[in-house]
Design goal:
Keywords: Hydrolase, Membrane, Protease, Transmembrane, Transmembrane helix
Number of domains: 2
Subcellular location: Membrane
Number of strands: 5
Organism: Runella defluvii
Number of helices: 3
Order of helices and strands: HHHEEEEE
Helix content: 40-55%
Membrane topology: Multi-pass membrane protein
GO biological process, one term: proteolysis
Distance between the termini: 65 Å
Strand order of the largest sheet: 1-2-3-5-4
Structural class: alpha+beta
Length: 145
Amino acid sequence: MEISSTQIWIIVGVVMLIAELLSVSFVFAFIGVGAFVTALLTWIGVLPMINAQLFCFSVVSVLSLFAFRKPLQALTKKSSDKSMEYSEYVGDKAMVVIDIPADGEGKVFYRGTEWIALSKSHERIHKGKSVVIQELDGIRLIVAE
C-alpha cells in the first residue's frame, strides 16, 4: 500500500493537533493548520511537487501562527483570569493528607482529588487537619487553618 502526499500531510496535521491538546501552547495547532491546508492544495492538484508542498506548509504555518496566536492567547487568558478571580474554591474546606511544611508544599484532599497546597500562614499544618482554601496559585491551593 502506497501512501500519497495528501495522506501524509493529513497525518502530520492530526499529529500536530494531538500535540497541541497535550501541550496547550498554541503553536502545534498552527503547524497542523499548515499541514491541512497543504493536504487540501495537494489533493486538488495545486501543489504536485514536494518542494512546493514544503514551501506552502512553511508559509501557512508561520503566517497563521503570527496572525492568530496572540489573539487566541489573549482570549483564553481573559476567560481564565475571570475564573480565577471569581473562584468557587475560595472558602471551601479541604483535608490535609501530607503535612504542609512552613515554607514548602504538602497535599490536601479536595473534591475527590489530591491537590498541592501551600500554607498561607507560613506555619506547618499537620496531616488530618481541616483547612480553608484562601486562594489559588496556578494549580496550587493556598490554605490556612
